[in-house]
Protein backbone atom coordinates (compact mmCIF):
# COMPACT_ATOMS: atom_id res chain seq x y z
CA UNK A 1 0.00 0.00 0.00
CA UNK A 2 1.21 3.50 -0.81
CA UNK A 3 1.92 5.65 2.22
CA UNK A 4 0.74 9.26 2.11
CA UNK A 5 1.19 12.32 4.31
CA UNK A 6 0.24 11.86 7.99
CA UNK A 7 -2.01 14.90 7.52
CA UNK A 8 -3.98 13.17 4.77
CA UNK A 9 -7.79 13.22 5.02
CA UNK A 10 -9.70 10.23 6.36
CA UNK A 11 -10.97 9.40 2.87
CA UNK A 12 -9.76 10.70 -0.47
CA UNK A 13 -11.30 9.40 -3.70
CA UNK A 14 -9.28 10.58 -6.69
CA UNK A 15 -10.46 10.49 -10.32
CA UNK A 16 -12.27 7.19 -9.75
CA UNK A 17 -13.50 5.31 -12.83
CA UNK A 18 -15.56 2.17 -12.27
CA UNK A 19 -17.22 -0.25 -14.69
CA UNK A 20 -19.75 -3.03 -14.19
CA UNK A 21 -19.94 -5.72 -16.88
CA UNK A 22 -18.19 -3.39 -19.31
CA UNK A 23 -20.41 -0.37 -18.64
CA UNK A 24 -18.74 2.65 -17.05
CA UNK A 25 -20.69 3.88 -14.00
CA UNK A 26 -18.26 6.21 -12.22
CA UNK A 27 -16.51 8.57 -14.60
CA UNK A 28 -13.83 10.44 -12.71
CA UNK A 29 -15.27 10.93 -9.22
CA UNK A 30 -13.42 13.01 -6.63
CA UNK A 31 -14.37 13.19 -2.96
CA UNK A 32 -12.69 14.07 0.35
CA UNK A 33 -14.09 13.28 3.81
CA UNK A 34 -12.35 14.19 7.07
CA UNK A 35 -12.92 12.96 10.61
CA UNK A 36 -15.61 14.80 12.56
CA UNK A 37 -17.51 15.43 9.31
CA UNK A 38 -20.81 14.17 7.92
CA UNK A 39 -21.08 14.31 4.13
CA UNK A 40 -24.31 13.69 2.24
CA UNK A 41 -24.33 12.38 -1.32
CA UNK A 42 -27.51 12.97 -3.29
CA UNK A 43 -28.36 12.17 -6.87
CA UNK A 44 -30.94 10.62 -9.19
CA UNK A 45 -31.25 6.89 -9.85
CA UNK A 46 -28.33 5.57 -11.87
CA UNK A 47 -25.95 8.34 -10.93
CA UNK A 48 -23.51 5.93 -9.23
CA UNK A 49 -24.21 6.54 -5.53
CA UNK A 50 -24.49 2.89 -4.49
CA UNK A 51 -21.66 1.95 -6.87
CA UNK A 52 -19.42 4.30 -4.89
CA UNK A 53 -20.41 2.68 -1.58
CA UNK A 54 -19.68 -0.83 -2.87
CA UNK A 55 -16.35 0.26 -4.35
CA UNK A 56 -15.30 1.74 -1.03
CA UNK A 57 -15.86 -1.67 0.59
CA UNK A 58 -14.19 -3.63 -2.22
CA UNK A 59 -17.10 -5.46 -3.86
CA UNK A 60 -15.51 -7.70 -6.54
CA UNK A 61 -18.31 -7.02 -9.06
CA UNK A 62 -17.08 -3.46 -9.59
CA UNK A 63 -13.99 -3.07 -11.78
CA UNK A 64 -11.92 0.00 -10.96
CA UNK A 65 -10.28 1.05 -14.22
CA UNK A 66 -8.58 4.27 -13.05
CA UNK A 67 -8.12 6.41 -9.97
CA UNK A 68 -7.39 5.77 -6.30
CA UNK A 69 -9.16 5.32 -2.99
CA UNK A 70 -7.01 6.50 -0.10
CA UNK A 71 -8.16 5.67 3.43
CA UNK A 72 -6.19 7.14 6.32
CA UNK A 73 -3.54 8.06 3.76
CA UNK A 74 -3.12 4.55 2.33
CA UNK A 75 -4.21 3.17 -1.02
CA UNK A 76 -6.73 0.39 -0.27
CA UNK A 77 -7.66 -0.68 -3.80
CA UNK A 78 -5.94 -4.05 -3.42
CA UNK A 79 -7.41 -4.82 0.01
CA UNK A 80 -10.30 -7.34 0.28
CA UNK A 81 -13.47 -6.25 2.13
CA UNK A 82 -12.52 -7.90 5.44
CA UNK A 83 -9.20 -6.04 5.53
CA UNK A 84 -10.97 -2.76 4.80
CA UNK A 85 -13.36 -3.46 7.68
CA UNK A 86 -10.39 -4.04 9.98
CA UNK A 87 -8.95 -0.71 8.84
CA UNK A 88 -12.15 0.97 10.05
CA UNK A 89 -14.55 1.05 7.09
CA UNK A 90 -18.22 0.21 7.60
CA UNK A 91 -21.11 -0.04 5.13
CA UNK A 92 -24.79 0.01 6.09
CA UNK A 93 -26.72 -1.61 3.26
CA UNK A 94 -29.83 -0.26 1.59
CA UNK A 95 -31.39 -3.74 1.72
CA UNK A 96 -29.98 -5.71 4.70
CA UNK A 97 -30.13 -9.50 4.38
CA UNK A 98 -32.06 -11.72 6.78
CA UNK A 99 -30.13 -14.55 8.48
CA UNK A 100 -32.69 -16.91 10.09
CA UNK A 101 -31.31 -18.96 12.97
CA UNK A 102 -28.49 -16.52 13.84
CA UNK A 103 -29.21 -14.29 16.83
CA UNK A 104 -28.19 -10.65 16.79
CA UNK A 105 -26.08 -11.31 19.89
CA UNK A 106 -24.00 -14.01 18.14
CA UNK A 107 -23.86 -12.05 14.89
CA UNK A 108 -22.53 -8.88 16.52
CA UNK A 109 -19.95 -10.74 18.59
CA UNK A 110 -18.66 -12.55 15.50
CA UNK A 111 -18.53 -9.26 13.58
CA UNK A 112 -16.62 -7.52 16.38
CA UNK A 113 -14.20 -10.44 16.61
CA UNK A 114 -13.64 -10.28 12.87
CA UNK A 115 -12.97 -6.54 12.84
CA UNK A 116 -10.61 -6.68 15.81
CA UNK A 117 -8.86 -9.84 14.63
CA UNK A 118 -9.03 -11.21 18.19
CA UNK A 119 -11.57 -12.75 20.51
CA UNK A 120 -13.78 -10.54 22.67
CA UNK A 121 -14.56 -11.60 26.23
CA UNK A 122 -18.20 -12.20 27.06
CA UNK A 123 -18.07 -9.58 29.82
CA UNK A 124 -16.59 -6.87 27.59
CA UNK A 125 -18.96 -7.65 24.74
CA UNK A 126 -22.08 -7.62 26.91
CA UNK A 127 -21.06 -4.32 28.49
CA UNK A 128 -20.39 -2.76 25.09
CA UNK A 129 -23.72 -3.92 23.72
CA UNK A 130 -25.63 -2.86 26.84
CA UNK A 131 -24.12 0.64 26.65
CA UNK A 132 -25.00 1.04 22.97
CA UNK A 133 -28.52 -0.36 23.36
CA UNK A 134 -29.21 2.18 26.07
CA UNK A 135 -27.72 5.04 24.05
CA UNK A 136 -29.84 4.13 21.01
CA UNK A 137 -33.03 3.38 22.93
CA UNK A 138 -33.20 -0.26 21.82
CA UNK A 139 -34.58 -2.89 24.26
CA UNK A 140 -32.23 -5.68 25.33
CA UNK A 141 -34.70 -8.31 24.08
CA UNK A 142 -33.77 -7.15 20.56
CA UNK A 143 -30.51 -9.10 20.90
CA UNK A 144 -32.30 -12.46 21.07
CA UNK A 145 -34.00 -12.08 17.70
CA UNK A 146 -32.64 -13.57 14.49
CA UNK A 147 -30.81 -11.14 12.21
CA UNK A 148 -33.38 -9.20 10.15
CA UNK A 149 -35.74 -12.21 10.21
CA UNK A 150 -39.27 -10.81 9.97
CA UNK A 151 -37.99 -7.30 10.69
CA UNK A 152 -39.80 -4.18 9.58
CA UNK A 153 -37.85 -1.68 7.49
CA UNK A 154 -37.26 0.47 10.54
CA UNK A 155 -36.01 -2.46 12.63
CA UNK A 156 -33.52 -3.43 9.92
CA UNK A 157 -32.11 0.07 9.85
CA UNK A 158 -31.93 0.25 13.65
CA UNK A 159 -29.86 -2.94 13.59
CA UNK A 160 -27.52 -1.35 11.04
CA UNK A 161 -27.05 1.62 13.38
CA UNK A 162 -26.45 -0.74 16.31
CA UNK A 163 -23.80 -2.59 14.29
CA UNK A 164 -22.09 0.70 13.57
CA UNK A 165 -22.17 1.63 17.26
CA UNK A 166 -20.67 -1.69 18.39
CA UNK A 167 -18.00 -1.89 15.67
CA UNK A 168 -17.05 1.81 16.08
CA UNK A 169 -15.65 2.37 12.56
CA UNK A 170 -13.54 5.34 11.51
CA UNK A 171 -15.68 5.87 8.41
CA UNK A 172 -19.33 4.84 8.22
CA UNK A 173 -20.97 4.72 4.78
CA UNK A 174 -24.77 4.67 4.99
CA UNK A 175 -26.29 3.66 1.67
CA UNK A 176 -29.86 5.02 1.50
CA UNK A 177 -30.52 4.18 5.14
CA UNK A 178 -33.74 6.21 4.91
CA UNK A 179 -35.13 4.10 2.05
CA UNK A 180 -38.71 2.95 2.69
CA UNK A 181 -38.97 4.35 6.22
CA UNK A 182 -42.00 6.06 7.68
CA UNK A 183 -41.49 9.31 9.57
CA UNK A 184 -41.16 7.67 13.02
CA UNK A 185 -38.58 5.14 11.81
CA UNK A 186 -36.74 7.92 9.98
CA UNK A 187 -36.45 9.95 13.17
CA UNK A 188 -35.22 6.89 15.07
CA UNK A 189 -32.50 6.23 12.50
CA UNK A 190 -31.54 9.92 12.41
CA UNK A 191 -31.26 9.99 16.21
CA UNK A 192 -28.93 6.99 16.01
CA UNK A 193 -26.75 8.64 13.37
CA UNK A 194 -26.53 11.84 15.40
CA UNK A 195 -25.67 9.90 18.56
CA UNK A 196 -22.70 8.32 16.76
CA UNK A 197 -21.22 11.53 15.39
CA UNK A 198 -17.70 11.77 16.77
CA UNK A 199 -14.45 13.75 16.35
CA UNK A 200 -12.79 10.38 15.57
CA UNK A 201 -15.33 9.35 12.92
CA UNK A 202 -16.42 10.50 9.48
CA UNK A 203 -19.76 9.63 7.91
CA UNK A 204 -20.89 9.42 4.30
CA UNK A 205 -24.69 9.44 4.05
CA UNK A 206 -26.13 8.48 0.66
CA UNK A 207 -29.73 9.52 0.14
CA UNK A 208 -32.29 10.38 -2.54
CA UNK A 209 -34.22 12.84 -0.49
CA UNK A 210 -33.69 15.92 1.63
CA UNK A 211 -36.03 14.64 4.36
CA UNK A 212 -33.30 12.71 6.23
CA UNK A 213 -31.22 15.88 6.25
CA UNK A 214 -33.98 17.62 8.20
CA UNK A 215 -32.75 15.56 11.15
CA UNK A 216 -29.09 14.87 10.28
CA UNK A 217 -27.30 18.10 9.43
CA UNK A 218 -24.40 17.41 7.03
CA UNK A 219 -21.22 19.45 6.90
CA UNK A 220 -21.20 19.11 3.12
CA UNK A 221 -23.62 17.99 0.44
CA UNK A 222 -22.44 16.53 -2.88
CA UNK A 223 -24.67 16.14 -5.92
CA UNK A 224 -23.79 13.14 -8.09
CA UNK A 225 -24.89 13.11 -11.72
CA UNK A 226 -23.71 10.73 -14.44
CA UNK A 227 -20.93 9.18 -12.35
CA UNK A 228 -19.35 12.41 -11.12
CA UNK A 229 -19.76 14.96 -8.35
CA UNK A 230 -21.49 17.75 -10.25
CA UNK A 231 -21.51 20.21 -7.36
CA UNK A 232 -20.68 20.45 -3.66
CA UNK A 233 -21.90 22.85 -1.01
CA UNK A 234 -23.34 23.25 2.45
CA UNK A 235 -26.70 22.02 3.81
CA UNK A 236 -28.49 24.66 1.76
CA UNK A 237 -27.64 22.70 -1.39
CA UNK A 238 -30.03 19.93 -0.28
CA UNK A 239 -32.82 22.48 0.07
CA UNK A 240 -32.09 23.75 -3.44
CA UNK A 241 -32.38 20.21 -4.76
CA UNK A 242 -35.67 19.75 -2.96
CA UNK A 243 -37.16 22.80 -4.65
CA UNK A 244 -35.55 22.60 -8.10
CA UNK A 245 -34.74 18.92 -8.65
CA UNK A 246 -31.69 17.51 -10.43
CA UNK A 247 -32.35 18.91 -13.88
CA UNK A 248 -30.08 21.90 -13.42
CA UNK A 249 -27.18 19.62 -12.52
CA UNK A 250 -27.38 17.40 -15.60
CA UNK A 251 -24.87 17.99 -18.40
CA UNK A 252 -26.23 19.83 -21.39
CA UNK A 253 -27.13 17.62 -24.35
CA UNK A 254 -26.50 19.04 -27.82
CA UNK A 255 -29.49 18.92 -30.18
CA UNK A 256 -29.47 16.17 -32.78
CA UNK A 257 -27.62 17.36 -35.87
CA UNK A 258 -25.83 20.19 -34.06
CA UNK A 259 -22.25 20.84 -35.07
Structure description:
The chain has one domain: 3-Layer(aba) Sandwich (Rossmann fold). Helices cover 31% and strands 27% of the residues. It contains seven helices and twelve strands. A six-stranded mixed beta sheet has the order 6-9-10-3-11-12, sandwiched between helices. Strands 2-1-4-5 form a four-stranded antiparallel beta sheet, with helices on one face. The protein has a two-stranded antiparallel sheet with strand order 7-8. Helix 4 packs across helix 5 and helix 5 packs parallel to helix 6. The protein starts with 10 loop residues before the first strand and ends in a 15-residue tail after the last helix.
Could you give a short description of this structure?
The chain has 259 residues and is of the alpha/beta class. The chain contains seven helices and twelve strands. The protein has a single domain (11-249), classed as P-loop containing nucleotide triphosphate hydrolases (Rossmann fold, 3-Layer(aba) Sandwich).
Task: Give the termini separation.
Answer: 46 Å
Mean pLDDT: 90
Globally, the shape reads globular
Supply Rg.
19 Å
CATH architecture: 3-Layer(aba) Sandwich
Number of domains: 1
Strand content: 25-35%
Q: So what's the oligomer here?
A: single chain
Q: According to CATH, what is the topology?
A: Rossmann fold
Return the structural class: alpha/beta
> Tally of extended strands?
12
Element order: H for helix, E for strand: EEEHEEHEEHHEHEHEEEH
Give the number of helices.
7
**Helix fraction?**
25-40%
Please mark out the parts with pLDDT under 50 across 5 or more consecutive residues, or reply none.
Answer: none
Strand order of the main beta sheet, please? 6-9-10-3-11-12
Describe the biggest sheet? Answer: 6 strands, mixed
Amino acid sequence: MTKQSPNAPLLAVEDLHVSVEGKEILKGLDLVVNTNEVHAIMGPNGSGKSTLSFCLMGHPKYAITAGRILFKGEDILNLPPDKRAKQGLFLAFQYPTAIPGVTIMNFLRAALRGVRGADVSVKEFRQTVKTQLKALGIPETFMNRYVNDGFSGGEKKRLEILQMAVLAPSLAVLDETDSGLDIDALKTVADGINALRSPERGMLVITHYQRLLNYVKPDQVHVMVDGRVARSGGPELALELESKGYQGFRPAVAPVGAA
